[in-house]
Write a structure and sequence with these properties.
It contains four helices and twelve strands. The protein is of the alpha/beta class and 173 residues long. The strands form two sheets. A seven-stranded mixed beta sheet has the order 1-2-6-7-8-10-9, with no helix packed on it. The longest helix has 8 residues. The N terminus is likely disordered.
Length: 173
């Protein structure tokens, strides 16, 4: 279901089975590496934090698991404006994830809004940080290499206590 709040379109996504193994990917820029598919295999939900670059990437990811995806700054074609919201909400049981491409565009207080996790991309740098009890994750870039940054995706296990986050360097698979 899409809803509009302020200037941002938000897409809320719920599943009948509570996913615990979440695959995180961003900044594919039209390139979906076989290594990314291998790393994300076994995910029960995949979150793409924008700069998809090609709708076929979402089709391929959906062959693995349901996908929640947002629009990034390179997603300017008609298909992306039509299919990808600027922000999304993914619900995994009691865990609410807020998804956007650039964390600097975050226009709400995640904790006050009831989100435990914020997933973003854009910087091409993988990152895990916590602020006020909210986990911020950037899975890095899985697309074409930018500068000397590693090519990565992330896997989040919500079934583990505390949650387990693993960054996967695709060049080491």
């Amino acid at each position: 279901m899409r809803v509009t709040k302020g200037s941002a379109s938000r897409y809320s996504f719920w599943m009948s089975k509570v996913p615990t193994r979440i695959g995180l990917i961003s900044d594919t820029h039209g390139l979906l590496r076989e290594e990314a598919l291998t790393a994300l295999r076994g995910s029960e939900l995949i979150v793409h934090a924008g700069d998809v670059g090609d709708p076929d990437i979402l089709t391929e990811l959906r062959n693995l698991a349901p996908v929640v995806a947002v629009r990034g700054n390179v997603d300017s074609e008609a298909w992306a404006r039509r299919e990808l919201p600027e922000t999304a909400v993914a619900q995994a049981g009691d865990v609410s994830m807020y998804v956007l491409h650039d964390v600097h565009a975050l226009d709400l207080d995640p904790l006050a809004a009831g989100f435990q996790i914020v997933v973003s991309g854009h910087s091409h740098k993988y990152l895990r940080s916590e602020k006020n009890g909210v986990l911020y994750i950037n899975p890095g870039s899985a697309g074409p290499r930018r500068f000397t940054l590693p090519i990565t995706v992330a896997k989040l296990d919500l079934g583990a206590k505390p949650w387990k986050l693993e960054f996967v360097d695709l060049e080491k698979l």
